[in-house]
Amino acid sequence: MLILAFDTATEVATSALVSDGEVLGERCSVAATLLEDVDALFRQASARPRQLDAIVVGTGPGSFTGTRVGLSVARGLALALGVDGAGISTLDALAAGAEGGIPLIDARRGEVFVQGPEACRPDEVDVAGKLCVGSGAVRYRELLEAGGAEVPPDHDPRHLPRAALHVRLAEAYGPVERIQPVYVREPDAKPREA
Fold first, then answer.
1. pLDDT value at position 187?
2. What H or E segment, with its residue span, contains residue 22?
3. DSSP single-letter state for residue 193
4. Which sign, positive or negative, has the C-alpha torsion 62, 66, 69, 73?
5. Phi/psi at 49 (nearest 5 deg)?
6. Which residue in 60, 74, 32, 187 sits closest to 135, CA to CA?
7. Model's pTM, two decimal places?
8. CATH number of the domain within which 64 lies
9. 138-161 pLDDT, tens digit each
10. Are residues 167 and 83 in the same domain?
11. What is the pLDDT of residues 6-39, one digit of tens each?
12. Residue 157 phi/psi, 5° resolution?
């Protein structure tokens, strides 16, 4: 089964092409270049989009816009190619990449997204003696380490919601339009009142 996976909920977008559990290629970039990354993955694997069996997409929480980009691309590709998909929490993917670790995604506003999912201040998370991974762990390294956490170096791959892990976590596939984003709070942008 050939599966395309990607997660655009954090500052670093990840994508992967996986065939029967074997990773054919992985890329890290930004959400804006997702389609370029997808094209490069197919070329690298000498595969064609029509060979695709399913799509797995990260559902957040994270950047509102980034999450919407990923879901929109997943829906567009699924419609064009006639494939099903699965949505995986970005927090779950981070946790899968750091067994026993606490995934923390930078939520801005002095907060992190944690399992629940919920947004809270980083000093409200019980981190003593625990491994913390993700963009929130990198941003609040000093505070977390002062609380007794272990935070890997900034460029450690455990800080990324690797798309190949999304495939491993995916269980049930269905219509991609049913996949819902995980928004923990309302978006910052509001419609203008008339």
1. 66
2. strand 22-29
3. P
4. negative
5. -55, -35
6. 60
7. 0.94
8. 3.30.420.40
9. 999 999 999 999 999 999 999 999
10. yes
11. 999 999 999 999 999 999 999 999 999 999 999 9
12. -60, -15
